[in-house]
Amino acid sequence: MTINVDSDTCNRCGTCAEICPMGIIDPTSGRALPRVPEEKERMRISCGQCEAFCPTGALVQGRERGKPTKASGKGEIPAGNLGTYLKSRRSIRHYRTEPVAKETITSLLDIARYAASGSNGQPVEWLVIHDPREVQEIGKLTVDWMRELAKSNHPMSSYAPHFIAAWENGNDVICRDAPHLLFPTIHEENPIAPTDAVIALTHFDVAAPAFGIGTC
Questions:
Q1: What's the rounded Cα separation, in Å, for the pair 11 and 56?
Q2: Domains located in the chain, CATH noted
Q3: What does each C-alpha distance from 165 to 29, 52, 117, 147 come to in angstroms?
Q4: How many CB atoms lie within 10 A of CB 169?
Q5: Span 111-116, mean pLDDT?
Q6: pLDDT interval class at 71 (50, 70, 90)
Q7: Under a CB-based contact definition with an 8 Å cutoff, are residues 156 and 146 in contact?
Q8: Phi and psi dihedrals of 184, rounded to 5?
Q9: How many CB atoms lie within 10 A of CB 140?
Q10: pTM as predicted
Q11: Among candidate residues 55, 60, 68, 69, the one with its CA nearest the CA of residue 1
């Protein structure tokens, strides 16, 4: 994985070398283009800083992950508006029965994949349960698990009877009758990445209302 530089648009300003957190990009000199020496390739963390800060858009990361459209400038969203939007985020407990289009969910996942992750590894994979009947089955299985939890010394065991009783009275307190479920998953061989999954899920949660979707 290397950096690709367009010789026609690169103005040799040296921003990429200056902004690189690992300090591995050789500054430009004369007509030479920015480059990562072979002996420093192993130090790359693929953070994307060089690409994000290149003023002419001449530099692109070697790995193909897609490139988001850049905002036209800082302050594109007024701070007050953004603050109000984030403060107004709520966990939804009452859902409509009509399904959310798969295309809409895909668009949100495309946003969530740009969430911060260690070394920009983007390790999160997603499982989307789109069939409401399967969502209900997962709720049922969760309550079955809670019945076992209630018999244990687990710190959450005291909560289980309340959930079980509500479920048995026809109140879905597990999935709240949501039509879909979304699970971020991480490979077992990546033990430090679960935090990346939480961050990605939060991005989905924050972006969803802009698409007219409620989440919890």
A1: 7
A2: 3-61 (3.30.70.20), 91-211 (3.40.109.10)
A3: 72, 52, 39, 10
A4: 8
A5: 93
A6: low
A7: no
A8: -85, 135
A9: 14
A10: 0.72
A11: 60
